[in-house]
Amino acid sequence: GQTLTGSGTLKVKVSDAAGNDGTVFSQAYVFDNSAPPIVGITSASPAGARTATFTVTFAEAVTGVDAADFTLAMTQGVAGTISGVNGSGSTYNVTVASIVGIGTMRLDLSGSGTGIADLAGNTMAGDYTAGTTRNVLVTGPRQVVSGIDISSDTGRSTADFVTSAPRQTITATISGKLNAGERLLGSLDAGANWTDVTGKVSGQSLNWVGAVLLEGDARSIQLKVVDTSRYSGALNVFDTFRYSGAVSGAVAEQSYTLVRTGPGVLVQGIDISDDTGTSASDFVTAIASQTITARLSGALGANWLQGSTDSGRTWRDISDKVGGTDGTELSWDGALLHLGQNTVQFRAVDVAGNAGLVSYQPVLVDTAVSITALDADKLEGTGVEWTDFSFSVMLASPTDWAATVTWQVTGARTYQATASDFWDGTTEGRPSGSLTFAPGEVQKTLLIRVRADSIFAQDVTFSVAIAAGTAGLSVPVASAIGVIRNDDDLIGGASDNRLLGSNSAEAILGLSGNDTLIGQDGNDTLVGGAGGDRLSGGAGADFFRYDSVDESTSRARDTIVDFQLGDRIDLSRIDAISLLGGDQAFVFIGSADFTAAGQVRFANGIVEANVDANLHATFRLAVMGIHPVTAADFIL
């Protein structure tokens, strides 16, 4: 409950019952509960200075002083920016930059929310606005130059202003258009020498073409607007130091580094993780994704390492793939090669983008070739010389060079296509040839021309095989099948014939004789003609056509041996009632007996038709099969 006042010393001792005192302990103290007072704010900077310093003095040591604690009190037409604070203890210097105008300027200290406190923790109690008011007399141009950039920043970042290219186009933006008598000057050596670049200005944009940077680091581009109307000397744009007498505006600055020579680090002993060729060191592989290893001749230091798998067309920063105890071991995992011929390349690059010597290693990745049929199972054609059968030849991945494959047509399967089945308008024979893929191309269409004739033949088959390819092309079993479908009618002669159709749709005509007609696959039309014929439609929806009741009678009856769902018996070409004029259609009466001419019945496996008035069958046809014959199975 003791109350301290001012400054003093605290003392403590221990006394026994007899009044003897022990050692006395003491501690000096300072009691301070007052806000830190400010002595003053002064400035000795001249009125014409574009950058001024204000000295802020406190009565005691304080902390927490920064630029946000201050404000500028300026008369109209004066401008400036608080750019920084430095100092400690009781004295701090506040820098005000970019000062322009004519009038006065004062630096004030905010009294609250500043964070300024003395060593006892007491904070500021009120504003301070009694500092020195300094005159401002800066009559130069007010334009500010900003956004300085160079056209070729070859460093590791495109905005680090590190480059290997001395000749540049320097761009910048001026806050306002140049007035009469004002000129823009540029310097590439931190203001030691100035060049008039007014002619490079359009509106408020600078485009300084052909600027030549100076080699080295810590160089500086500077730009400023000067008012030459206040300079009485003769101006000479080729002797720019004469502008020193002109009134200058604020200087904009951008540092840069120009390096002209590349690093001397080399990459040696290049190898791949999966060499699947004839030997483990022939750099032939079927695996595109590799781990590429090598050793550097020295540590990278500030340089970085680039790698390329496409002969140097594109480069990748692989510095993070370099390690080892001495920083010289490269292990580039996941390096993706292109199928075909590759050239793996490495180079060290310095901070300015200068590349050292390139190390390289050729690697061949096999490219598999395949062929598939596109439109290669169809009719041979009618009324034309040939029909194109198309195939697609594919590369598994694109190559970086022109690749050629050869191909050959041969007969295939039971009914093989022969030389006479192929015709290109001038030459008969099984064709062969070659296809060339352009770099990057992976698909080609191959056309095989098949002769279109009018002679019946069985469906025949041929094979198109890839025979060989250029280096880097792997040709496994690569072939595709084409099927030439017959589209011509099969016609028998006067004797007994056995007529075997193809697997396509066609008409088979027996004519006279006791013929056997076999349709096989396809939707065929079978016409037995005169005689007792045996008819087999085979697979497909077939038509058994009769043009006369005389083509199947009681004495020479035809037999359909495999009638099935979808097949039809066509009697529509027969006049159902011979005694009437015109062409009448039959009427199906099921298994009932005839009651009139023009009726068709089916009973006990026999189709019968009556065309006259005697109610006896004038047409008889045996039908075998698992499908019972109904009205839907006729064309009447």
Automatic annotation (TrEMBL):
Major location category of this protein: secreted
Record-annotated Peptidase M10 serralysin C-terminal domain positions: 506-635
Molecular-function GO terms, alphabetical: calcium ion binding
Lineage per the UniProt record: Bacteria, Pseudomonadati, Pseudomonadota, Alphaproteobacteria, Acetobacterales
Names of the cofactor(s): Ca(2+)
Assigned keywords, A-Z: Repeat, Secreted
Record protein name field: Ig-like domain (Group 3)
Keyword Transit peptide applies: no
Native source organism of the sequence: Falsiroseomonas stagni DSM 19981
InterPro entries xrefs: Big_12, CalX-like_sf, Hemolysin-typ_Ca-bd_CS, Hemolysn_Ca-bd, Ig-like_fold, Peptidase_M10B_C, Serralysin-like_metalloprot_C
One matching Pfam family: HemolysinCabind
Subcellular location: Secreted
Residues in Bacterial Ig-like domain copies: 34-127
Keyword Secreted included in the entry's annotation: yes
GO cellular component, one term: extracellular space
Superkingdom, natural source: Bacteria
